[in-house]
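A quick aside before the break. I want you to see a complete sequence-to-structure record at least once, exactly as it would be stored in a machine-readable document. Don't worry about memorizing anything.
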Amino acid sequence: MSNELSQLVNSPVLWTITIAALGGVMCFSGIYLVKSIRAGKEMGISMDEMKVAVKTSCVTSIGPSIVIMLNMISLLMIAGAPTALLRLGVIGSIDYEMLCAGLATDAYGTTVSVGNMTPHIFQTMLFVMAVGCIGWLVIPSVFCN
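That is the input. The structure line, written in tokens, reads:
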């Protein structure tokens, strides 16, 4: 990886965007949890039953999270730490992210690998990833209720 690309991949701007986006995901999680508890109370579900449901949800989310973390290694090699953390923290689909990387490199007539990555390919890859997930972020924002 060239020095110019390395600086771009690990830039403070990307880290700032990553931290802000993951903070947004955490806020949405909190909003959904509060709304779920309120709706559960309105439906007559006891707090004990809701606590069991939350604990069960937390435990059952461990398996898929491990798979996502293992797959993050492949994206980490191509896109760098902040991009991999952002993409898999927000979307969580390695298939989608690798498809975006493949489309970006195909547009430049090359293949997805660290040796072939240039700043232009990296920026194109980020653009394709961002445009493809706008709907997944806007719809919950607008229709949260």
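Two observations worth writing down. The chain has one domain: 3-142. DSSP finds seven helices and no strands in the chain. We'll return to this after the break.
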